[in-house]
Amino acid sequence: MTTGPDAGRLPAAYLAPGSSSFTEFVGAHAPQLLPSRRTLPPGSTLEAPHGTTIVTATFDGGVVMAGDRRATMGNLIANRDMEKVFAGDEYSAVGIAGTAGIAIELVKLFQVELEHYEKIEGTLLSLEGKANRLASMIRANLGLAMQGLSVVPLFAGYDLDREAGRIFSYDVTGGCYEEHDHHSVGSGSLFARGSLKKLWRPGLSGDDALSVVVEALYDAADDDSATGGPDVGRRIWPTVAVVGDAGLRFVPDEELRTVVEAVIAGRDGNPGGAR
Amino acid sequence: MTSMPFYVSPEQLMKDRADYARKGIARGRSVVVLGYDKGIAFVAENPSRALHKVSEIYDRIAFAAVGKYNEFENLRVAGVRYADLRGYSYDRTDVTARGLANFYAQVLGTVFTQESKPYEVEIVVAEVGEGAEDDQVYRLTYDGSVADERGFVAMGGAGESVEAGLKERWTPGMSLGDALSLAVGLLAQDPSGGAARELSAAQLEVAVLDRERPRRTFRRIGGSLLNALLNTEDPTHDAPSTDDPTPGRHDTLTGEGEVRDESSNPETQRPEGEGNKPEAP
Fold it and tell me: How many domains does the structure of chain B reveal?
């Protein structure tokens, strides 16, 4: 800080008035820290761990999001206990599918972005505001996505104004779409969506929604090799976040174990879960 | 024709600037920062609900200031940017009050010597530790000098007389209720020896860094909780460990409504436990 154009003064980005965005500040002051500012050598392809399936569903009074724990690299399992569902802030959850390294960095940036806004402005961003901030981060990642390192998140949160859970999905270009009732992204999402259509009902309770998303993940793992099913031997359960008017809560392992065991018991001798 | 530059000795120049800054600061109302058994409390005489003198910087770090609002607000935002950038590029545990105090010292020192007008501010950066002996409180003045304070600090117009009172009556391990009553009593005194004023909860801005909370420890205190803490006859001596149950931002404890469900998690990460390995802090 003692040499260069600032000559002992604080870099201008620190004192710039008007911006409450952490991403904008980092972009102006230390752009090398942003995941989207990296360039890859042209024409190369890279094998990196990929996160797989995220499932989310609304219920009466909130929204629940679940993710399996597997990351794959080609035909290998790169990680069997990766967390892919994160809290954005107190009232929102982000699940990620796609290149795990970039996705996790993006979520970390998103979390700081929301907290930064909260501290500077002294108020929470609206749920749509949060969804749009995430969209602009995905948009900035388009260059990397075109080289195969795409990130597709799923965003869900509790809207304090409408007093209901809402779901937003994204495409690689940063398009942000509101989804109704339920949604799923990632390699196993086709099977999970089919399962959700049959299992989800309007006005579900929180506990029922929890078992619906766990069962949808089970169905995804049944047909998609990249999605990890519940691992009873290692006691690896899906990551599940429940967001409601009381805030966000990650479902503890003991509770998940009961739900998972009930789903598995329901499939005993009835592998398709017909009912 | 330009006028002949007069020679002004550096001593005179610095003295003039220091006098100017001191005068500006002395015009404002005071802020008290003091330790209590479970953390650090901040008490400011500030009737405004929107323009804060005390704010959160990071998980365990808070900021208090007196002087010109636009100048210390500028410093607060710079501090939040500094802390968030550091936490993002290293780890949340690597953001320290010492680093932030050094950062502010550089900024204030440079402004004092290089700009045409010094900042008319005095600030405190406080970090709550695991125990009272690990608490850190730094006082920074307009010229960038840093003082490492123990236990309590008072700044602003009546700063000196309040600090004299604190020296006499503050003891380590006071309860929050006692600490707040002491601070408010001293703020209400007239430094020129007149009758003490009556300070109501509405004229006060009160916040704490609560060492027993996980992650973000900063909470404002308002509503009936503040009244109860300031009332010596009320049995309330401590801030609750759970947030208000009302949906919305949980930065203020009012003690109104029922207790919030403890399982709800205002933190941004799944708590570390058996068999789960968090991927990001």
Answer: 1
Its ipTM equals 0.89
Q: How far is CA A56 from CA A68, A69, A155, B1, in A?
A: 12, 15, 9, 76
Mutation target to probe the A interface, by most A beta carbons within 10 A, among B63, B102, B260, B268 is B268
- Strands B252-253 and B218-221, by their bridges, are parallel
Q: Which domain holds residue A154?
A: 49-265
B84 to A88: CB separation less than 8 angstroms, yes or no: no
Q: Is A262 on the interface with B (CB under 8 A)?
A: no
- Domain containing residue A63: CATH number: 3.60.20.10
Q: Which residues, numbered 170 to 189 in chain A, qualify as contacts with chain B under a Cβ-Cβ cut-off of 8 Å?
A: none
A128 interfacial to chain B (CB closer than 8 Å) = no
Query: What is the nearest CA distance from B51 to chain A, expressed in angstroms?
Result: 10
CATH value at residue B234: 3.60.20.10
b/e per residue B221-232 (b: at least 16 CB within 10 A): bbbebbbbbbee
pLDDT in tens, A244-262: 998 899 999 999 999 999 9
* A219 shares contact with chain B (CB less than 8 Å): no
Q: Is position A99 annotated as part of the catalytic site?
A: no
A-contacting residues in B 114-143 (Cβ below 8 Å): 114
Contact (CB<8Å) B275/A246: no
Torsion of CA B111, B112, B118, B122, to 10 degrees: 100
Name B36's bridge partners.
Answer: B39
Distance between CA atoms of residues A67 and A186, nearest Å: 10
Between CA B23 and CA B5 the distance in angstroms is 27
Interface residue B273 vs chain A (CB under 8 A): yes
Handedness of CA B15, B20, B21, B23 (dihedral sign): positive
C-alpha to C-alpha distances, B271 to A89, B30, B214, B256, nearest whole angstrom: 14, 40, 10, 28
For an interface test with A, the pick among B57, B270, B272 (most A C-beta atoms closer than 10 Å) comes out as B270
Its sign, for the CA torsion B227, B228, B234, B238, is: negative
pLDDT tens, position by position, B213-245: 888 899 999 888 998 898 888 888 888 888 887
Three-class DSSP category at A49: coil
Is residue A5 domain-resident? no
Residue A70 in domain: yes
**B48 shares contact with chain A (CB less than 8 Å):** no
In residues, how long is chain B? 281
Residue of A nearest to B247 (CA): A245
**Distance separating alpha carbons of residues A54 and A187, to the nearest angstrom:** 9
Answer whether residue A226 is part of any domain. Answer: yes
pLDDT, tens digit (0-9, with 9 covering 90-100), for A10-49: 788 888 887 899 999 998 898 888 887 777 777 767 788 8
How many domains does the structure of chain A reveal?
1
Chain centroid to CA B226:
17
Range of the domain at B113: 10-253
